[in-house]
Amino acid sequence: MTGLTGRLNSTQPYALGLYRVVVGLLFTCHGAASLFGVLGGAMGTHGGTIAAGTWPGWYAAVIQLVGGAFVLLGLGTRAAAFIASGSMAFAYFDIHQKAALWPIENGGEASAMFCWAFLLLVFTGSGAFGLDTLLARRWAQQQPTAEQTPVAA
């Protein structure tokens, strides 16, 4: 059993990177639908959009589009995921939970799932093939080593 566990553990950064891409893409699609009327439009509008500046829907859609894109790319993943998770917690407790306690009853399943999905990314980071990882590697390569650092006389 340790052989399988070891192999699965070695692929963890790639699975996490793929998870991040899928969650970010789905969240970005929600924002694009609400802001631009694509992919069926904003929920309940049959292809329509949310009016600019409308609280809280338009602001949530901007967070979905921008935050989802940042998570999708793996750029500023932890910060973007933190903001996205908070927006979904707000959506759940302010909008959905008023109707009923359980997400299955109040239509808040997507809000609850996105909230927890993004909270996981806050703690795990972007995983493999994220721009965060690429930029961190480049930054580390550009830092001078002890041999390259001039010594003051």
Describe the fold and architecture.
The chain crosses the membrane at residues 21-43, 55-75, 82-104, 110-131. This is Integral membrane protein. The protein is mainly α. It has a domain at 16-43 and 55-127. 67% of the residues lie in helices and 0% in strands. The protein contains seven helices and no strands. α3 runs antiparallel to α4 and α4 (77-96) packs antiparallel against α6 (109-124). The longest helix has 25 residues, at 12-36. The radius of gyration is 20 Å and the shape is globular. It starts with a helix and ends in an 11-residue tail after the last helix. The relative contact order is 0.14. The mean pLDDT is 88.
Features of this protein?
153 residues; mainly alpha; 67% helix; DoxX-like_oxidoreductase; DoxX
Radius of gyration: 20 Å
Helix fraction bin: 55-70%
Low-confidence stretches: none
Largest sheet: none
Order of SSEs, N→C?
Answer: HHHHHHH
| Mean pLDDT figure | 88
Q: Could you give the distance between the termini?
A: 58 Å
Number of helices: 7
Strand runs, count: 0
Oligomeric composition of the shown chains: single chain
Label the structural class. Answer: mainly alpha
- Kindly estimate the percentage of residues that lie in beta strands according to DSSP: under 5%
Shape: globular
In short:
The protein has helices at residues 2-10, 12-36, 57-73, 77-96, 103-106, 109-124, 131-142. It has 153 residues and is mainly alpha-helical.
